[in-house]
Amino acid sequence: MRALLALASLIRHPARTALAVAGIAVSSAMLLDMVMLASGMRLSFRELLDARGFQIRLSPKGTLPFDTEATVGDGRATLEALQRHPAVQAVAPNLGTQLIAPRGEVGVTLAALGVEPAVQGDYTLLEGTQPARGEVVASRAALRALDRRLGDTLTLASDWDTQLRLFRSTQVYRVAGVARFHYLGADQNVVALPLADVQALDDGARDDRLSSIMVRLRPNANAADVARDLTAQLPRVSVLTTADAVAQADERLAYFRNLAFILGSVSLAVGFLLVTTLMTVSVNERIGEIAVQRALGVQASRIVQQIVAEGLVLSLVGGALGLGLGLLTARYLESILGDFPGLPPDISFFVFQPQDALSAMGMLVVAGALAGILPSWRAARLPIAATLREEAVA
Amino acid sequence: MSRALSDTMLLEAVDIHRDYAMAGDAVHALRGLSLSVAEGDYVAIVGPSGCGKSTLLNLLGALDRPSRGAVRVRGQDVAQLNDRAATDFRLRSVGFVFQRFHLLPMLTAAENVALPMAEAGVSARERLARAAELLAYVGLGGRTAHRPTQLSGGEQQRVAIARALANQPALVLADEPTGELDARTGAEIIALFEQLNQDGTTLVVVTHDEELAQAARRVVHMKDGAIVRDERLRD
Q1: Using one digit for the tens of pLDDT, what is the confidence trace for A51-87?
Q2: Quick check: A296 and B91 CB within 8 A?
Q3: Is the CA virtual torsion B200, B46, B62, A282 positive or negative?
């Protein structure tokens, strides 16, 4: 009977109820999006690091991987030291540089990665084979920019001499594969080639240099313990576990989290105020009916239950609609933010997790229930005889 | 033929006062009023507007508390009950009929009648069967699924009477039950009240309606918060 009364009260003013539900849906969609945003980039970044199966990353001291041109000078010795550690299963060195594909006097600039193709963790091969000496794998964007296909050859220079107006150290490479690069922008022109080829450029100027090293540990090895050992052994490099990298990225993403927290709180407050307003208006309108129910023997607590149930129904229906709306909005926003230049393709801003949806819905439902308590309690405690008399006069 | 009046007192109001503060002034709505109502009696309370009739009815039905004095129903002082107990008393022992019917507009006639039964914990099947029975008793057997807006004033008041009888109360209190009805419909309600009383229901009715008052077994005249005359018309 309580449920019937709660539903009947909501159905009585369909337009008002529909507007309230729409308002709550928008508010809950925003709340869900903000909850997804607050944890999305962090999760996505962790997934990105974990997916390649490397637990430790080494980079020149004082830098983070992927964001510097600094290099480790004694690459071979560092790699040997790593390979000697009993917990280390595989080591994937990487040397980043820029190459230029000449086009008249203007060239197309490419990000180039020197890798050990057999163990690398920077890209996934989509077509073709891993590069041998004199070969490259390229991103689709690079092939498009250079108008090349799998099996074609490419001339790449390591530098442009501005005085002589000449490309230096030009070399011809065959396109052995097409790859998706995980840590570079989806729209970026990238090639990967054997580490030895990159180190040999400019007459060996980069010999023995490395930009970063990824380390895969043996099963059951403790990444933090190994990182501690390596830090002691290799004082000239920074040793980061995935957890450290996520924590450092987390600090850089604090802006997003704070923004998400503030906007999420605002959404929740809007949802709460919306239900409170609606419940207050609805209760004030039915004050006489509530007094009649009390006169007929309905306990005050049951009146509160009924009105709280109305708030809950509004919150649940609005929240459920908001869930769908939030996912649609997140997808749309993701497509906008995903176009941001230089963003790795596997990074997502909004990551859906069932517990996020549950916590957003939970917060909204609790807010909806709380929003109904005050007006209903006030109405249930009104003096019955006086209220009936005033209603009769009105 | 009238049912014989019982010797047992159902209701006793003893020296009740009800004072209000209105715009800073004390208003004495009831001034030491005492009244006893026997089981099966039919009492009409009459008097000019503002004499305290409705205030008395509210106190008898535990809708309000006296400033002083006691209201005993079957020996229990309902003025001393806390809110929960007073609500339970109204649910199980009193049926109310209001001048403006006060049906819940979103419920059907049967649902309105079933509401107090639901509150008393009667099963859904039983309360719907009983609601149909009570609506048939008040002459609305064919209107169970109608909403209040689909019923005339007289029909709404019949539904309200059926609702008042839902939990088989010891006492039915009615405040101007014919006040919103035309003469013909009012006469039907008067007849229904007579029928109720003949079937054993104790009735206390506040009214300005002379015909309704004359249908009662006893008429209590009030003025300025006190009983000025108490006449028994029939036993």
Answers
A1: 778 999 998 886 555 445 677 778 888 999 999 999 9
A2: yes
A3: positive
